[in-house]
Structures are given as C-alpha cells and as structure tokens.
Amino acid sequence: MRWEKRGADIPYDPDSPLYRICPQCSDDFMAETEQDIYCCTKCKDDFNNAKKAANKLVQQLEVLPAEPTPDISLLEDLNTNLQTNIHLLDQLVDGKPDGVYVTFEELDKLGLDFNSNNGQGLLYNTPNPGECTFVVYGPFCIYRITFETALIVKPQISKSC
To answer: What is the mean pLDDT of residues 26-55?
Structure first.
C-alpha cells in the first residue's frame, strides 16, 4: 500500500520553490508547504526510524568496554598482602606438624587479608562437602572446619628418593 504523495493536487513545476526530491525514496514531488521535506508520511517515518536505529547502534558501540589493562599497583598490593599473610601464618603454625586450630575472628584480628591468596576450593571428602572449604596461602592451607573455626597446616614435603 503506497501512501498518498504530498502535493498531488499541485501542478508539477521543477522551477517552483515547492519542488522537492524526497531524501528517503528519491522521488520528486511538489511540497504543500515550505516545511515539507519528505514526499509522504511513510518516507518520513522510515527515514526517522532508520536514523534512530543508527543512533542506537552508535550508542551501543560507545558503551562497549575497552580492553582491560592490568593495574600493576593492584597486582603489587596483592603480592605484598599475600607475603604478609604467609609470614603471619608461619608465625601461627611455628613448626607444628599437625597444624593449629583458630577462629576466623582471630585471623581477622591478626590482620589476615582473606582476599590475597593463591586459590580456594571445596573439600569433597567431608561429611558436608558443600560447607567445608580450603584456601591456599603459599605453602599453607586453611581448612574451614566449622563456620567459625579453621585448621591451618603447612604440608610437609617428604624428601625420600
């Protein structure tokens, strides 16, 4: 269905100031007023919808995140905090082969940075595998025994041949 062209009842005159070429469909037509730009409402709507879609695409492209760059100072802080954690745990365990039981509140008071670690995971060989976890700080492992308590151990490496 074709929309009715503007100026259909105005005599066609290419020299008239009302003569226009539609920017959407490139048809020539006679405008009814000086403000008319498009030959019909459909061309006007199609042009504006395409313009909005293009603007939306440009906005989406502008929002795309840039490639992340590593923050060297953050990495240095994490490494420093990890070294501090290892030193703190070394003082707590102090050569005890069976490890040390402590509360997480005590570890927090001593200044352990729980976020600076080498890795963590679930313990599957326990009665409640979803509740027991471990965190690795260098050579130390902290095993969550209950919600409040942990066992800190430094596994001994056997030097057998």
So the answer is: 88
Domain that holds residue 76: 72-153
C-alpha–C-alpha distance, residues 27 and 89, integer Å: 81
Domain boundary among 8, 35, 63: 63
Mark whether 50 and 94 lie in a shared domain: no
Residue 119 included in any domain? yes
How far apart (Å, rounded) are the C-alpha atoms in residues 138 and 43? 69
> Are 85 and 35 part of one and the same domain?
no
Over the stretch 76-115, which tens digit does the pLDDT of each residue have?
A: 766 787 888 888 888 888 878 788 889 889 988 988 888 8
pLDDT number for residue 125: 63
Domain count, the chain: 2
The least confident of 18-27, 33-42, 96-105, 115-124 is 115-124
Q: Which residues have a Cβ under 8 Å from the Cβ of 118 and sit 6 or more positions away? A: 82, 136, 137, 138
Residue with tokens 């760059």: 69
Asked if 92 and 59 sit in the same domain, the reply is no
- Whole-structure pTM value: 0.48
Task: Count Cα atoms within 13 angstroms, Cβ side, for 50.
Answer: 9
